[in-house]
Structure formats: structure tokens, C-alpha cells
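Weekly modeling sync, notes
Attendees: S.R. (lead), two postdocs, one rotation student

Agenda item 3: backlog of single-chain predictions. S.R. asked that every request posted to the team notebook include the full sequence so nobody has to chase files. The rotation student volunteered to paste the first one in as an example of the format we agreed on. Action items at the bottom.

Example entry:
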Amino acid sequence: MAMKLNKELPLPSRLKEEFPLSDELKAIKARRDAEIRKVFTGESDKFLVIVGPCSADNEDAVCEYVSRLAKVSEKVSERLILIPRIYTNKPRTTGEGYKGMLHQPEPDKAPDLLGGIIAIRKMHIRAIAETGLTAADEMLYPENRSYLDDILSYEAIGARSVENQQHRLTASGMDIPVGMKNPTSGDFSVMLNSVTAAQWPHTFIYRGCDVTTDGNDLAHVILRGGVDKYGTCVPNYHYEDLVRLLEEYEKRELKNPAAIIDANHSNSNKQYKEQIRIVSEVLHSRRYHPGLHKLVKGVMIESYLEEGKQPITDHRVFGKSITDACLGWDDTEKLIRTIAESV
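Predicted structure, as returned to the notebook:
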């Protein structure tokens, strides 16, 4: 047999009983969810900044980062809502490399999925308890989100997953905003089809059960750039791209049209310092065109305590990415302040 059963994992309900969210933290999440929802429905004109490490590889470093973010949040809260990226699942193009804390609680050690699901839940809860900021994560494995579905305030579906039916149908049953990234090809129609699917109700099999969803009216797009047939990055954050997206939205009967612009990945060709310039251009386009001001609800930025990236060794720098290169804290704080002054 090609697949070996290592061990059975606890049901999400059991893990939630063992590591529960307190009533105080539940109230924080409810307030945050309501505030974020109003941005997508147009009831609030606050701007979202989804910001944090490419991968959440170390609990202490991540919580230190989110603590710093919380202090900045207090100063910009009249204009911005800061949502920390605490990404615990990492898609790998070839299947090789670090797949996130879910797989490897210790990046330089063997996979431990039981340890991983415990570690990511504890880290997310600690971040909320210490800062009052609920976070974003990527839904890489639809069945696994049940371990965190009472904690997160935002989820993204990545470029390699957005065409997958199980991801789309699961998104239709979520009660928080879910961002559907354009596929690696950059195709807008595929991306918008995924939003359509996520906004409709569905009946399907989920974690061994027959389930029916209501549809998610907060499903929206994330522009992250694409790659052409020659492997060249093709950005899609420019003014013309955003106008085209607005026109495509207008052709479809979708609820709460919205876009988040991912400033890294194929938009920056992974040149992490370019994120500063890209965000500036997006904000300019948004100021220039009233329709884009309404459509573009936020930006996504990859940053950590230390800039750049590093290999996985036994003498890693605290708070430096072990996956894609990130902005450092000083640049991040300056950029957030600039965004607050510009929206």
C-alpha cells in the first residue's frame, strides 16, 4: 500500500475542548469580525492591512511581531484595521521544503502533525490574548480549518488552490471574509468564478459528513500577480489591471465587490522591498478613481521582525523569515503610517 497510516488525529471539537477560546477572547473576535465585515459591505471606509510573516515559524517571534503591530494599531485605528498574517500552512510548488508549523512545529525537525495542530491553535490563541488582534491564515487544507475556525477573522485561498472545488465549497460555508487569489496564470475569470462559487450555497461532503452551506457574501478577490508560459512574473496591481477587474466585477452579479492587493509574490517578483512602492501605487490608483476607491479594500504585505530571509539551520536569526523574504519591522511601521496618512 502506497499510503501508510501513522496515527489518528483528534477531532476539532476535542482539540477545542482541550485548548478553548475564553469568553473574553470570543468577545474580542466577535467585535473584530463585525468591524472587518463592515469594510467589505461598505458600511465602513476603513482600510485593511493584512500584514505579517510569510510563514509563522516560531511562536515567540510571531507573538512579538503581533505585539508590536498592536501598538501601531492603536495609533492608526481611526483609518486602518490591521490584521496580522499568522500563516501556519505553506503551499510548496514542488512539494519540497518547509510546509508550515502545522506540519513541522520545529522547522529543523521531522513532521509532527499532532504536535502541529496543537501548536498552531495555541499560537493563535496566545496572539489574541496578548494583543487583542485576531488574525488571518491560509486555508491550504479545507478539512484542517475546523481546528481554527473559531479563532480566525480572515482566510485566504492561495493561487494553487483557488481552482479546487473543495476549497470553493468550503469557503461558501465560512462566516468570515475569504480572499480568493488569482491562479498562478493570473487568469481573472478563474478567480472570479471561484468567488461566484464561494458566494453560492452548496451541499457536499466535509470531514465525513453531508453538509449544506448558506454561501459566503464576503468572498472576494486577491490580486497577487501571475506567471506567463515562459516563467516571467506578470504583475496585476497597476491602474489598468484594477480598472479591468472593476469592469469584470460589474459584469457579474456578485455581492460586496472587493479586492485585496497582495504586494509580494508575483506582483513584486519576490523583491520584498518593492512592496513599499507597490502599496504606494495602489493607494494612488485608489485615490484617482472613485470606483477603485470603493473596490480596493486593503493590501497584503509580507513582513517580519528582521528583513530578508534565511536558511533553516540550528542558529537562525530570531524573527527572520525561513520562506519568502519579508520587510523588516522598521520599514513595516513606516509603511503602515504612510498608508494611514494616504487613505
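Discussion: group reviewed the output briefly. The CA atoms of residues 279 and 317 lie 27 Å apart.
Action items: rotation student to repeat for the remaining queue; S.R. to check formatting next week.
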